[in-house]
Amino acid sequence: MRQKQIDRIRAFNRFYTKILGILNRHYMGSPFGLPEIRVIQDMYLHPGRGAKEIALELNMDKGYLSRLLKKLEEHGYVCRSASDTDGRRDIISLTDSGIVIYHELNASADRSVEDIYGGLTEEQMEEMIAHMDAISNLLANDK
Amino acid sequence: MRQKQIDRIRAFNRFYTKILGILNRHYMGSPFGLPEIRVIQDMYLHPGRGAKEIALELNMDKGYLSRLLKKLEEHGYVCRSASDTDGRRDIISLTDSGIVIYHELNASADRSVEDIYGGLTEEQMEEMIAHMDAISNLLANDK
DNA sequence: AAATATAGTTGACAAAATCAACTATATTAT
DNA sequence: ATAATATAGTTGATTTTGTCAACTATATTT
Fold first, then answer.
1. H or E element in which residue B49 lies
2. What does the pLDDT read at residue B143?
3. Local confidence band at B115 (pLDDT 50, 70, 90 cut-offs)
4. Interface contact B127, partner A, CB < 8 A
5. Contact A16/B at CB under 8 A
C-alpha cells in the first residue's frame, strides 16, 4: 500500500468526518443524546437483540449501555424481558412509545440528510450513491 | 430527493461511521486524546491559524479548545504568538517537539489505515480511492 | 461437581463537551 | 472622537459521555 493512497484515504476520512459531524447534530432539541439515539435505532433495526449484541455493534461499553438502557426503560421507551433459553440474557425491545420516538428521530435524521446532500441533481445523487455502495462492497467483502 | 436515496445514504453513513470509529482508536497508548490529536493535525496542516479557525474547522467549542491549547503549550508542543494586525488574535504554532509528535501520531494513523484498508488488491484500492474522490467532489462542489 | 466463561449491573472515576460570564481588542455607526 | 457593537480568547461551573474493574447470576466445559 503506497503512501499516496494512504494520504488520499485519510483526506477523504477527514472530509467525511466533518459531514458526519454535521449530520449528527440532527437530534438537537430532542431530549436524547447521540448514544441514546444510536441505541434506539439499533433496537428498531435489529429487534430481539440482547445488550451484548448492541454493545458490540455500537462499540459501546457494556456498563455504559446498561445504564443507558435503564434510563430509557425508566422513561418507558424500552422494555427488557428474560430470554427463555438463557437466563443471563435480556431481550431488549422498544415499547410503542419507543417506536414513536424512533420514527420522530428518524424523520429528523432524514431531514438532515436532505439538507446536506439535497443540492445534487438526480443524476449526481444516483452517482454518489453508487460510489457509496461500491466503497461499502469493497470494504465489507474484505473484512 | 427520494426516500430510498436517503436510506441508502444513511446506510453508508452507518457503515462508514463504524470504520472511522475503528480508525480513531489508533492513538491508543499515546498520551493524547482524540481532540488533542485533531488539533495537532490541524495545526500542522494549516499553519498560521488562530484558535477561531481551528475551532471552526474542528467543530469545537472555543473554551474547550482554549484549555486544550493551554495544556499542549504547557507540555511544550505548541506556542502562541500575538498577531501584529489584531491584538485579540493568537497565532498558534507547533513547536519542534510538537512537530515530532505530529509525525509520530501520523505514522500511527497511517498504520491503522493499512490495517483496515490494506486487504484490497492494488486495483481495488485505486478503485476505492476514485470513489472517495468522486464523493468528495460531488459534495464539495455542492456546498 | 468444579472450573471457567458469559450477560448484565454497579461504583468509582476520567475524558470530552457545553454554556455563560468575563477581559481585551476591533469595528461600526453616530 | 466616542459610544455601541462585535470578535478572539479565557475561565468557572456543569453535564454528558466513556472507561475500568469488581460483582451477581446463569451457562458451558472439563
1. none
2. 43
3. very high
4. yes
5. yes
Q: Distance in angstroms, CA of A61 to C1' of D30? A: 31
- CA of B62, C1' of C28: distance in angstroms: 25
Distance from CA of A25 to the nearest CA of B (A): 11
Alpha-carbon distance of B14 to A109, in angstroms, equals 12
pLDDT of residue A92: 96
Using alpha carbons, list the distances in angstroms from residue A83 to A48, A72, B79, B81: 10, 19, 58, 62
pTM: predicted TM-score of the whole model, two decimal places: 0.86
Q: Please list every residue in chain B whose beta carbon sits closer than 8 Å to the beta carbon of residue A116.
A: 139
- The answer, yes or no, to whether residue A80 has pLDDT greater than 50, is yes
Q: What's the CA gap between B44 and B67, in Å, rounded?
A: 19
pLDDT of residue A18 exceeding 50:
yes
A3-142 adopts what CATH topology?
A: Arc Repressor Mutant, subunit A (1.10.10)
Domain boundaries, chain A: 3-142
With a cut of 50, say whether residue B74 has pLDDT above it: yes
A121–chain B Cβ distance below 8 A for any pair:
no
